[in-house]
Amino acid sequence: MWFFAAETAVCHLPQEIWDEVGESDEERDKMLLQLEQDCLDVYKRKVEQAAKSRAQLLQALSDAKLELSSLLSALGEKSFAGIPDKTSGTIKEQLAAIAPALEQLWKQKEERIKEFSDVQSQIQKICGEIAGTLNLSDQAGTPAVDEADLSLKRLDEYHGQLQELQKEKSERLHKVLEFVSTVHDLCAVLGMDFFSTVTEVHPSLNDTTSVQSKSISNDTLSRLAKTVLALKEDKKQRLHKLQELATQLIDLWNLMDTPVEERSLFDHVTCNISASVDEVTVPGALALDLIEQAEVEVERLDQLKASRMKEIAFKKQTELEDIFAHAHIEIDPEAAREKIMALIDSGDVEPAELLADMDNQIANAKDEALSRKDILDKVEKWMSACEEESWLEDYNRDENRYNASRGAHLNLKRAEKARILVNKIPALVETLVTKTRAWEEERGIPFTYDGVPLLAMLEEYAMLRHEREEEKRKMRDQKKFHEQQNTEQEAIFGSRPSPARPAGTKKVVGPRANGGGGANGTPSRRLSLNAHQNGSRSTTKDGKRDNTRPVAPVNYVAISKEDAASHVSGSDPVPASP
Asked: One Pfam family name from the record (predicted)?
């Protein structure tokens, strides 16, 4: 319509002008046709521009919808709150409605890509650290992100993978720190340089590097484990060596009576003599210089021991003689010492071998003494009982024993105890005989007491005791005969003389000598035994013989209880009060 109205207006305007100008009709028609053609051309151009603009808008709308769909698919979203539900309105209105949603989705996509890139970068870095292909000083390259799949599900998968790797990294880092701590402790005990030891495994393991920057690769863990094993084995070997040296030091000190002050200089060596590997934690306790110091001291003491060999050997011989003396085993100490002198002077035997042989002799002597201990204890009891028996005989012969003199009540109490002890002698002797015979049957050798067979001593004691009982019986018979004669004389002459005590029974009251004869019931072997012991006791450190205890005779022949009862009944009666 607007085209035809314009055409009419154009026609009226030129007519007036043409009339005024005087244009011909032909010119007028020609100019009108030209105007009509120009108007048609303008119209066509406008229509074409409008159609092109519409097509472009439609294409932009289609591209926007496609892009919107792609973004939603990449982000894993099924819908978006900013997208209009209905496609109504003009094309521009539709584009204007979609544009904010596209802008938000693009922004969300960029953020999602950044998140994926960060997660994948961390994953790539940790994997490189575990594999050992990534140096801690290097920066990992930016990983390629698959923009076709930016869904939260995929992102969660990456996060899960990252958490697993972070957990593994944490565990590996914990192991690395444990290994490093163990290496530090071992190096401290062994006196080694921790820094150089640990940096040989990996440069990042020194103290100046932060914890998160330490290498956690498989190679680092493997090398750390090997280093720890090597250090532990070294510690074990050094401790074994140090304990051997400490044992040698103590043996040499004991051998040469080294003073405590000198020993204390090596307390840091001997303090670990019985320690386990895990118990040794003191820094420098197993350092090489300490072990070398102990080796030098052992070598010095070995040389000193060689020069003091005779003194040491004689000291062990004295120990051996003391053991035999306490066990009442007779030996020839002079011959043994001469033999030791000859061996040392000849040089045919190594000092260590000689001392080891003497140690074996001492050990065997201790075993022998232990096997004799039970019998010797009973022998001591028997000898003490014999001494009390001897004292009781003297006491019973004292006519003034019941007088109210000073100490009389003490003697009376001792006499009561002595009688009880004397009554136990037969059973004690019987036990001694049984044990001695069992001992001899087991070993096939006689049991000697200071060189005298114990059974022979017991037999002699039994014989002397029997002789003493016979003597007492004769004395009782003689006493009865004298009493009968006195009674007859009293009947004939009317007077009663004082009873005469047989001259042979009188004796001065006092302590008996060790070697009392057989008259009082103790065997005459006592003298021979005491004399023998004075020559066979081992020497003390002052070179004197140990003769402090008088030895009563040993007897292993059982005496019947009737004999013991007759001995007690044969004694003078004891009143109830002095």
From this structure: MAP65_ASE1
pLDDT of residue 49 exceeding 80, the answer is yes
Q: Tell me the two tokens of residue 562.
A: 């009737």
29, 64 in Cβ contact below 8 A? no
Q: Which of 106, 96, 141 is nearest to 121 (CA)?
A: 141
**Distance from C-alpha of 248 to C-alpha of 297, rounded to nearest angstrom:** 10
Indicate whether 554 pLDDT > 50: no
Q: How many CB atoms lie within 10 A of CB 432?
A: 25
3-state secondary structure 139-170: CCCCCCCCCCCCCHHHHHHHHHHHHHHHHHHH
- Per-residue model confidence as pLDDT tens digits over 91-100: 777 777 777 7
Length of the chain counted residue by residue: 578
- CA torsion through residues 227, 230, 233, 237, sign: negative
Q: Which residues contact 24 (CB under 8 A, 6 or more apart)?
A: none
Q: Which residues pair with 449 in a beta bridge?
A: 452
Long-range CB contacts for residues 293-297, cutoff 8 Å, separation at least 24: 293/269, 294/242, 294/245, 294/246, 294/249, 294/266, 294/269, 295/245, 297/249, 297/266
Q: 204: which DSSP letter?
A: G
Q: What is the pLDDT of residues 136-150, one digit of tens each?
A: 445 556 778 877 777
- Partners of residue 448 on adjacent β-strands: 453
Report the predicted TM-score, pTM, of the whole model to 2 decimal places.
Answer: 0.49
